Amino acid sequence: MEKNISFKLKIWRQAGPKEEGRFELYELNDIPTDTSFLEALDILNEQLVEKGEEPIMFDHDCREGICGMCSLYINGHPHGPATGATTCQLYVRRFHDGETITVEPWRSAAFPVIKDLMVNRNAFDQIQQAGGYVSFNTGGAQDANALPISKVAADEAMDSATCIGCGACVAACKNGSAMLFVSAKVSQFALLPQGKPEAKRRVKAMLAKMDELGFGNCTNTGACAAECPKNIKLSNIARLNREYICAKCAD
Amino acid sequence: MWLTNSSVGRKVVMSVTGLFLVLFVTFHALMNAVAIFSLKAYEAICEFLGANWYALVGTAVLAAGFAIHIIYAFWLTYQNRKARGSDSYDVSARPKTVSWASQNMLVLGLIVVCFMIVHLIQFWAKMQLPEIMGERPAGGEEALGAAFGPEWWYYTLPIYLLGFCALWFHISHGFWSAFQSIGVNGNNWLPRLKKIAMGWATLVFVLFAVEAIYFTLHFAFGTNF
Hints:
- In chain A, the strands form 2 sheets. A 5-stranded mixed beta sheet of chain A has the order 2-1-5-3-4. In chain A, strands 6-7 form a two-stranded antiparallel sheet.
- Chain A has helices spanning 37-50, 122-131, 151-161, 168-172, 179-190, 199-212, 223-227, 235-250; strands at residues 4-13, 22-32, 73-74, 77-78, 100-104, 113-115, 118-119.
- Chain A folds into 2 domains: 4-114, Roll (Ubiquitin-like (UB roll)); 122-250, Alpha-helical ferredoxin (Fumarate Reductase Iron-sulfur Protein, Chain B, domain 2).
- Chain A is of the alpha+beta class.
- By secondary structure, chain B is mainly α.
- Chain B has one domain (2-79, 101-221): Fumarate reductase/succinate dehydrogenase, transmembrane subunit (3 helical TM bundles of succinate and fumarate reductases), CATH 1.20.1300.
- Chain B has 9 helices and no strands.
- In chain B, helix 5 crosses helix 8 (153-181).
- The N and C termini of chain B lie far apart (55 Å).
- The chains are: A alpha+beta, B mainly alpha.
- Chains A and B meet through helix 6, helix 7 and helix 8 of A and helix 2, helix 4 and helix 8 of B.
C-alpha cells in the first residue's frame, strides 16, 4: 500500500577530490513509498537547486539494475538494505517514517571520491583492459552444437558474466579487495572453451593490474558476495586462485 | 617471486602455513591427551621429543611456520588497511553470512600469540631449552605440576581457556579460508568445508579445554579419576 513518509538524509558532501568532506543533514517530507531511492535524491536535488544550493552529485544511468553506474553506501550496506538489487532498484518503502538514512560514497583507496557521492571507478576499466576479453578473431557465429559446453559450465559462466562492475564488492570489503569482480571476469572466460587459449595470460595480467592499482588482499570474509547486487558467488574467487596458481606453476 | 609480490601468492603462503599450524595444534592436543591416560606414557613422549636432532629440526620448522604466518599477517593487514583508505564508513553493518571471526583474524591471532608466550615460558623454557643449553630439563609431569599446581592454576587456567577460545574462532574461519585461498573450493565444497572447519575447531578446543581442566583438578586439587 502506498503511503507518504518523511525522513532525514545524512549525506556525505565533498566539493572535490582534494577537499575535506563532511556529512550534511537534509529533510525530505511527504515522499510516496513507491518512489525509488534515486528519485527521492532527485526530489532533494530539485529542492536544493530551487534554494540556490549546490545539488548532490551521485552516479546513475540505466535505473534498471543492469549498467552498474549507481553506487551509494546506504545505512551500512552498498546499494542499501535490499539484497540482490542495485541502488536504483531500491525503494523508499524500505525505510521507516522519521528514519535518518546515512548515505556515503564507496570508500576505498582505489576508488577516490570525485565529488560528493561520486567515486572514480576507472580502476575497474583498467583491470578489464588488462585482459578481460577474448582477443582472437571469432569470425562468423558457429553452429550452437559445434562446440560442446556442459550445462553446468555454461550456467556458471553465465552467472559470472552477470557482474555489472559496480564496485559494491570493493565497497563492502574491509580490505578494499577487488577479488570478486576480477574473479567473475576471469571465470566467465575460464569456464568456456573460447576463453581457454588465453586463460593463463588473462588471469596473470588482470591480477597483476588489480594489485598494481592498490586493491587489498582477499581474506575470505565473504562480505563481497553477501552484498553483491548480482549475487556473484564466492566460489568464483576460489576459481581465480586456482587459475592463478596453476598459471604461475606452469611458468 | 609470486609468493611475495602477488596478492594471491601472499594468501597461498598464509594458507599453507596456516594449515600446517592447524595440523600441529591437532597433534599437540592429541599428545596432551596421553597425559590424561598415563603420565608415564606422557613422560616417554616428552623424553622422545627432547633435544634430539629430529626434535630440533621439527621445532625449527614449526618456529619458521609460526614466524612466516605472523609476519605475513601483519604485512597483509598493513596492505589491506592502506587499500581501505583513511576514510572509514560512518555506518557499517556486517552481513549475516559474514562471520565475526573472519573480520577479526589479526586480533584473534594476537590473543593466541599472547597465550603462546605464557605457554612457552611455562613449558618450553623448562623442558627443551635447558636441554639445548646442556642443563637438566624438567620432566613432563614436573612442568604440568608447576603450571597447573596449587600456586599457579588460577592464572594458568583462565589464560589457557581464553587462548583456546581465540584459537577456536581463528580456526573456524582459517580452516576453510585456507582451502579457498589455494583454490580447492567450489559451490558444493564451500558449505562442507565451513562445517568441517567448525567441527575441527571444536574438536581441538574441547580436547585442549578438557585437558587443562583435568590437569588443574589433578595437580591443584589432587583429584584422582
